[in-house]
Amino acid sequence: MAELPELETVRRELEKEAVGKRFKVPEVTGAKTTKHNGNKKVFQSRLEGAKVKSVDRRGRYLVANLDNGELLMIHLGDTGRLEKVAPRSVAPKGTTVVFAFTQGGQIRLIDTGGAAQAFVVASDALAEEVPALAAGGLDPVADTVSWTSFARVILAKSVKLKALLMDPEVVAAIGPIYSDEILWEAGLRHDRISNELSSQEIRRLFRALVETLHEAVKHRGTTVDDFPFVDLYGKPGGYQDELKVYGREGEPCRRCRAPIAKARHANRPLYYCAACQV
After folding, report:
1. CB 241 within 8 A of CB 215
2. Structurally, what CATH architecture does the domain formed by 147-272 represent?
3. Is the model's pLDDT at 167 over the cut of 90?
4. CA neighbours closer than 13 Å in the CB half-sphere of residue 209
5. Backbone angles phi, psi at 9, to 5 degrees
6. Beta carbons of 239 and 221 less than 8 angstroms apart
7. Helical H runs in 76-146?
8. Minimal CA–CA distance to 142: which of 217, 69, 202, 33?
């Protein structure tokens, strides 16, 4: 599952490759991907001829703002990815939608897991058609977020910090990797209760959240065996070389040298330092 830094990496690349270009009729080979629009012909007709004005990100959705007042929404699911390719190249297994432009070039949506989505929605109908976005969490990469607004969210809930960071209504698009990294950076255990944190601990958590995400974006995301992210051009991220705890079970903590421990959260591995995360 791509998390916020990976999605932001792809968003920036889409902005470079798609803005100012006009869509041809998209080729849809996976009708499940575009089912939000009812059938693929509706999806194709709403996208054909539209020009991309800008590319945004809302939660886990990549959003192309079109010159006809509509939005192309793309959600990669757990296994989806986008790739820019030359025309007439052989489409790999799992290709569900091919977006072609009148100026040449293609961007493919590839998803072997079957959970990716692509659909077109009128901008003034977005809240109605995708209500989950209305309750979207803080996005420290896209928006300026104050520590006081973050503190209000933290103190309003009574949940474990790992679950809190992975709640999309609290922070947008955080998953297993960055929640572990943020908590290590803050020096806080995954099972601490959110509304029991001191003011100083909330400040540390907020600073760790912002700094970790911005640093990960700078390194173009993380590529590890269980999350094999590649960008629009098929290149892996670089933040895996900076990871402090994720995937480092038994290795020495980079702060206190104690061995990194491994636990489970929501049927996925969780990594932390039992010595210096308190």
Report:
1. no
2. Orthogonal Bundle (1.10)
3. yes
4. 28
5. -60, -50
6. yes
7. 126-129
8. 217
